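Intended use. Records like the one below are meant for learning the mapping from a protein sequence to its folded structure. Do not use them to infer anything beyond what is encoded.
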Amino acid sequence: MVTSFQLRTWHKWLALVLGLQVAVWCVSGLYMVSFDIDFIRGLPLVREHKTKLPADAPLTPFSSIAGRYADVTGATLRTLPDSNEPVYELSTREGRVLVDAVSGAQRSPLPQARIEALARTYYAGKGQIERIELIATAPVEIRGRALPVWRIDFDDALATSFYVAPDTGALITRRHRYWRLFDTFWMLHIMDYGYERDDMNNLLLRFASAAGVVFGVTGLWLLFFSFRRRAAR
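Structure written out for the chain above:
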């Protein structure tokens, strides 16, 4: 039979092991519910664009362009946000390609000056471009994204970074200091310390959750013993 002394011992050791993690759960959970998720995702930092295709543009027939690329699986006629010049965005086996819809010339990959112009067009903040570089190794904050990608850092109070695709000029994602802290707290909250930080069913979290249940049960059992002892007195 389990004695109250044994329960107390188990309870103390579980408290010692779980105490720090419980505090981390509380602090990280408080942070994650304290901010609007749209702010964390950086939506207020991105300016909305509604560019229209020019109605009188002398477009090159798509059939004459598609024949130059192997395995074209899709195409979109659109404009880039910083101009109203129409372009075809082709989806191919090797990736996406921009082609000038008027001249038929390939635009991809876009030069650095055009990437800077696009970044300024996307950006809705008050900062200026501090640094721009084409990166081939993904930092943790854009894990899982296709590479290479342009990283544009702004000198605003949020330490904002935009990531732009070199072939299409599309804004892939945006990051800022509150997102980075959110990501760190998320890692600590779900106890996934790997690169992806998305495994909510990892063994460490399961063990900590199970230990927390045992901690709660032993606490209730000790409370029961305490009431019995008072009744006996």
